Amino acid sequence: MTTHTRIQLGVTLYSFNNDYYQYKYSLEDCMEKVGSLGAGQGVELVGPMFIREFPDVSAEFVSRFRHAVEKYQLRPMAYGAYADYQRFTGRLATKLGLAEYYRAQMRAAHALGFPIVRVQAAEPVFDDLIPLAEKLGLVLGIEVHAPADIEQGPGQWLVEKIERINSPHLGLIPDFGIFAQRCAPVYRQRFVELGVSEKVMNLIEELWAERIDIPGIQREVKHLDG
Amino acid sequence: MFDEIMIPEDRFYPQVGYDACVRLKIRLPWYRSFPLSCVKDIALTIDGNAMPRQSLSLGLYGQAHTLDQLADLHDVQWFILDAANLLVDCDRRLGQGQHRVEMKMTLRIPYSDNMAFEFTEVAHCTKTLALTAEDGV
Question: Is A117 in contact with A138 (CB distance < 8 Å)?
């Protein structure tokens, strides 16, 4: 008998990062490994990690991916999309450009059979993307990363915005990082090695624990350094 | 990310037809593809000598780009599994044998939605590469 819970675990193909980068695992190898956990495993694909034509996708890739989904009995769950605001030198992507960049990725996600597209906070274009999400039957999930939070602090405006738009095609995807209480020592060490002083490091950790947003942390650090 | 393996091979290739020019394979030191506009800078030393910036160019998909040209190439995706060629125009012929190479690649990770904040990553790699007489691929 199967127990149904509202939350099910799946595998992001990002977890094969090391072996994939070093050509030890192909896309198909990664998918085979996921399938070895049993039929019906949910899969997340990071678009620009696997798709050469990103933000678009080729018919050839769609057929490769769908073939592997069938062969290893997987369930495409989420497509990892990117806003890449600063892909241009010296300026941010325009609102129109950002919407088009996301639409290309939404069409790719749909062609690959994903019901969910994980997007980065792109506040100005959410409303513009809803019609295509409706047409393709996609749910856009906005990822929330530390130091943002969904109960208080910097993530709160997102929750308000999503409630205002009030569409079944728009929601939140909490990154597990939002549950972290403090920075991992290995990260701290890395920045100390890069030359960040203990004084600055301590202040950043303190502000981070208080869920101060990044511009706020920058202001305080500038203040401290004079 | 992947700093130590952004130079995937142990060798230089002679650049056919150019006596003082060599190339080496390089990878994008990140987990996903980026457009070439996100490659902010590449610095290289050979046996402790810093190569001038204008002596370096990046060869990808049959095109060679100077480092200054990269900034405008937002429509050329460097696919994460593809190695590029770093072409080095040395001012004198590089001797055959082993050479100590130090490379630094600065990437703009384009995630910030605020121009006042740029997320950059600097990847470092030090490696000994061999230059042999045989022609490269």
Answer: yes
B132 DSSP 8-state letter: -
Find where tokens 């050469």 sit. A52
Q: How far is B118 from chain A (nearest CA, A)?
A: 8
Active-site annotation holds for A145: yes
Which of B36, B113, B61, B68 shows the shortest CA–CA distance to A97? B113
| Candidates A4, A67, A145, A223; catalytic one | A145
Structure tokens that stand for B68 in this block: 């200054």
How near does any CA of chain A get to the CA of B9, in Å? 12
3-state secondary structure B21-62: EEEEEECCCCCCCEEHHHEEEEEEEECCEECCHHHEEEEECC
With 90 as the cut, is the pLDDT of residue A15 above it?
yes
Q: What is the C-alpha R_g of chain A? A: 20
ipTM over the 0.90 cut-off: yes
| Cβ–Cβ gap B32/A48 under 8 Å | yes
Average pLDDT over residues A6-15: 91
Q: Nearest residue on chain A to B68, judged by CA atoms?
A: A89
What is the torsional sign of CA B107, A51, A38, A179?
positive
Pairwise CA distance, residues A144 & A2, whole Å: 31
pTM: 0.88
Find the CB nearest B111 among A22, A120, A218: A120
